Amino acid sequence: MPSGGYRPGAGRPRKNPLEKKIEGKPAAVPAKPKPTKKIQTEDVMTEYFSMAMKECEKEVPSADALRKELEDYIAARGCEGLVAPQTITDYVLNRQGFLACEAMNRKIGRMTKELKLSPYVTAGSAYYKAMQADFNLILQVINRYSGNQAEEKNAFLELLTNRGF
Length: 165
What we know:
By secondary structure, this protein is mostly helical.
């Protein structure tokens, strides 16, 4: 007749590892797994970025033009000198990379012959996420220190308050 397995908690209780040390028995230490294969890390995005920039240099604006556009926007909001220059540089390079990858996607398509995503789709989405994070940092500084602290009127919110909500 089958027993149906062991009951939880049945049997002799296990000893605490500190008690084993006191008794002179070595505590069992789990062995750390050794890496079996060394992974070569490559920066694939820079390779695709350089190829895309060579192919699409006429369609993608220069880094100087993108930087000037962003600095003009920051200055118009009255926050020049408050945004870190490195953040602006990161945003400009990520935006340029995203635009270059999107231009390549328009040229060669988003799918390869094997019906897989083009590497430019993956690289473009990574550039877009990084660009968005940098722009959010810039907007946080602008929203915090901008001279224009008044909120814009929200028509939907105004309708709700007029109805008694």
